[in-house]
Amino acid sequence: MAQALLQPARGTHDLIGEEYRRHLHVIETARRVATLYGFEEWATPIFEDTRVFARGLGDTSDVVSKEMYSFEDRGGESITLRPENTAGVCRALVSNGLTQANLPRKVFYAGPMFRYERPQKGRYRQFHQIGIEVLGAAEPLADAEVIACGWHIQQELGIDEGTVLEINTLGDAASRDAYRAALIAYFTAHKDQLSEDSQARLEKNPLRIVDSKDPRDKALVAEAPTIHDHLTPEAAEFYAAVKSYLTIFGVPFRENPRIVRGLDYYSHTAFEFVTDRLGAQGTVMGGGRYNGLVEEMGGPPTPSVGWAAGVERLSLLLEAAELTPEAPRPVAIIPAGGDTAEAAALSVLQALRERGVVAEIAYKGNLKRRMERANRIKAGAAVILGEAEIAAGTATVRNLDAGTQETVPLEELIRALAATGASESAMQALMAEMLEAEEDAGDEGDEER
Ligand code: ATP
Ligand code: MG
């Protein structure tokens, strides 16, 4: 009997073809922009001691209380697949003894995260995040720089028109204590209208209720007091400074006093980039300031700020904006003759690849079959090598879009391929070679002097 077809586990997905091209484009763009802002990439383990998250994220957060992939390994240790990476980065800072020298540390990361959630569009059990953290900076300029970097990445991706930056402050500890008391008083007066979850959270962490997605809670939250009536002068000043730096950086924002973020570790700045283009999954990037997390990991007080963004959600925005990057178009190398032609074709193939041109050869087939395959792999140009051409040290370059062709000396192959306009890698190779020739000429000039 035939075996049942295996499917990917619920909430996971394969990244193939244009979907993975979008995905990689998000990560590569983020990596490039983060480098411009002075961030260095770290890779921390995908699984950690469960305490890293239980301590770091706070046990009233949804992530810790409901969404973690935790299991006991064969040695009896409690292990958790990371649901986010901020706790791991802070743990790494402490474990590697980096809490004293060279602060602030500016860290970029990208990789898979795991949360046991109900899968839907833009929400998966294995998903991917990009993120940045500035570790060891108490200044509001760090908050603004982190936000500007996130905004810049969205601009580079071309999706910034579809998202809005919403910011808020959670104040300092004194502001939050006062706010907590006000929230407890308000929600207690309406306790019977709250969801069961929120009734349970009321005494322990009423801030969490403000972040609730339950419609019963949302109605109450709309009328709840905001933190702005409870900010200490220092906290208000910090918030004002962040906003003024954002204005200098030219980053547009909207204030939203309902943003509190889902994890327990935040203080001062909290922000989200939201969109109305992804249905219920409206947040693409979220973050803020967290001042106690490194201490939770056993390090010294290390004020920090950062954000994380869902790669799948950014990728869906790229798709919606029809901004899927094209796969590079190869040049098809086509021998037309016997073994001599085949050997010459393989040499040309290798020489082109060494010079940076994306080139392909079919493993077998006659001229017609090879031309068919060239079309199937969307080659923009073909290099045809017949016996006579090889003898003369030439090749025929065929523009597969226009159907035109010319026979050129092998030394001019890259120029001719670039001229078809159908091979971007050939154009880049030509430009690089021209630059190099210019530099060589410059060097010679220097020597004469
Ligand atoms: P949400 O409110 O959508 O559940 P969150 O507040 O739990 O998001 P964060 O922990 O702040 O999300 O993670 C940052 C970003 O990671 C989110 O804005 C989102 O883009 C992405 N993200 C979070 N959970 C998932 C998931 N299960 N699948 C896909 N992307 C996710
Ligand atoms: Mg969530």
TrEMBL record:
<dbReference type="GO" id="GO:0004821">
    <property type="term" value="F:histidine-tRNA ligase activity"/>
</dbReference>
<keyword id="KW-0436">Ligase</keyword>
<keyword id="KW-0030">Aminoacyl-tRNA synthetase</keyword>
<dbReference type="InterPro" id="IPR006195">
    <property type="entry name" value="aa-tRNA-synth_II"/>
</dbReference>
<dbReference type="InterPro" id="IPR015807">
    <property type="entry name" value="His-tRNA-ligase"/>
</dbReference>
<keyword id="KW-0067">ATP-binding</keyword>
<feature type="domain" description="Aminoacyl-transfer RNA synthetases class-II family profile">
    <location>
        <begin position="10"/>
        <end position="335"/>
    </location>
</feature>
<keyword id="KW-0963">Cytoplasm</keyword>
<dbReference type="InterPro" id="IPR004516">
    <property type="entry name" value="HisRS/HisZ"/>
</dbReference>
<dbReference type="Pfam" id="PF03129">
    <property type="entry name" value="HGTP_anticodon"/>
</dbReference>
<dbReference type="InterPro" id="IPR045864">
    <property type="entry name" value="aa-tRNA-synth_II/BPL/LPL"/>
</dbReference>
<keyword id="KW-0648">Protein biosynthesis</keyword>
<comment type="subunit">
    <text>Homodimer.</text>
</comment>
<dbReference type="InterPro" id="IPR036621">
    <property type="entry name" value="Anticodon-bd_dom_sf"/>
</dbReference>
<dbReference type="InterPro" id="IPR041715">
    <property type="entry name" value="HisRS-like_core"/>
</dbReference>
<dbReference type="InterPro" id="IPR033656">
    <property type="entry name" value="HisRS_anticodon"/>
</dbReference>
<dbReference type="Pfam" id="PF13393">
    <property type="entry name" value="tRNA-synt_His"/>
</dbReference>
<dbReference type="InterPro" id="IPR004154">
    <property type="entry name" value="Anticodon-bd"/>
</dbReference>
<protein>
    <recommendedName>
        <fullName>Histidine--tRNA ligase</fullName>
        <ecNumber>6.1.1.21</ecNumber>
    </recommendedName>
</protein>
<keyword id="KW-0547">Nucleotide-binding</keyword>
<comment type="similarity">
    <text>Belongs to the class-II aminoacyl-tRNA synthetase family.</text>
</comment>
